[in-house]
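REQUEST FORM: STRUCTURE PREDICTION
Request ID: SP-0412
Submitted by: Lab K.M.
Chain count: 1
Length (residues): 549
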Amino acid sequence: MQTSLDEFDYIVVGAGPAGCLLANRLSADPQQRVLLLEAGGRDNYPWIHIPVGYLFCIGNPRTDWCFKTEEQPGLNGRALSYPRGKVLGGCSSINGMIYMRGQANDYDGWAAEGNPGWAWNDVLPLFKHSENHFAGAADFHGDKGEWRVERQRLSWPILDAFRSAAEQSGVASIDDFNQGDNEGCGYFQVNQKAGVRWNAAKAFLKPIRDRANLTVLTDVEVDRVLFEDGRASKVSARWQSQQKSFKARKEIVLCAGSVGSPSILQRSGIGPRPLLEKLGIGVVHELPGVGGNLQDHLQLRLIYKLENARTLNQIAGSVWGKMGMGLRYLYDRSGPLSMAPSQLGAFARSGPEQTSANLEYHVQPLSLERFGEPLHSFPAFTASVCDLRPQSRGRIEIRSADPQTAPLIQPNYLSHPEDLRVAADAIRLTRRIVSAPALQAFNPVEYLPGASLQTEEQLHEAAAKIGTTIFHPVGTCRMGTDADAVVDAQLRVHGVPGLRIADASIMPRITSGNTCSPTLMIAEKAAQLILNPTARSFPAEEKALTALS
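STATUS: Completed
RESULT:
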């Protein structure tokens, strides 16, 4: 890769999933000079690549920004850790590796809200274009892309029993969550290759490291965007202990995520006037919605003690068990070290009034009090369930003009009464599944939140006690046409020529599932909009899309 640092055609800020893909696509034309800037380091930390190593990456300043939320009234005043990737590959280097698109009606809803080109039939070819699916090309999957999707390399009897119990409770078993309707129960497919994490840096940067027109710089923290004649033209950043500006001849694209992108905008003088004036930042362009509309999936971690079951709690609790795990992984990259954090998934309706699945389960053959603490000494499994369509809304705000100061993160979990109602219904559904015949051989006993909690008010309190983020913040630079929207349907920042945003922050509403692969789709769309703005889809897939319609 080139190292000369004069002007570039495109500057991409943030080398998470979106930034890695976008840099790949923009630099495919050798005539375009592309600069990719990442505030974190390189992805050469060994625990990034061993799937179970997420336990050593989350909360580690080597790979995680280690943000904290404000104390949450809806969670009994608790402040939560708020992991965000701080390394090449971004959150794809520390996340759960689950390949999930969401539901067709998520994207149809975006389009119906005034964002043409974002309906399911528009975005399905984008998902397929980057995908390398283990089963090969099909109506809903691609196999020519870089984003590897594989089956997991282990299974657990207790998870098989949970799947059978879900079926007995009305949640059918399915094999593929990614065909537009994910309702059902099955094992997650994961972004791994032969038992090793497949992050966005491996997928989209490593194969093109010799492109002479692409420069990738790490440990470069972008402070703000600079303007010439009303147009975004440069970024100011801290690099090698000095302040440096980099110029873009064509466009700057922010891919810094739902925390980073609104923070950069606010430091640049783009955002809510009262906040900018309070901090002494000149208002370059007033956009009141910057940092607002924060949405996240809050998971309720129900834990059940077991009998007659072997779970990771016992295996990892002994020296011999740990040695066996390591030897098995060295032998064929399988066993517990190849585990995604959650192996079994389920999508279900919290009640008959729901028109589609509004709950997602992440079921794990392990338990612990909280992330970063040891596993319990007793055999147990965890059934984490989250509300896929939360009504609560929060915000991200910088606290000062200094980029070294962590921003205010206020998710406002469980602040909407509908979220409390769905949380109570989710606990009830979980209990129905666990009481189904298929699990009774294991004699499950509810450890958290506790079976004695039964009334609506008690279940609300239980949700406040056990709720925690599942790391899916989106929406803080929302796409739309109203006064609070930040970008238009072409991802251009309203009123700011030369500046786009392409990451999870542009989502008007959170998708019904894990958010990494939808973020890649957004970057794929951004590349299409920049390089071929009149295209509806990728030519090779247009015929297949028409046939599906």
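NOTES: Confidence is low (pLDDT under 50) at residues 540-549.
Reviewed by: T.R.
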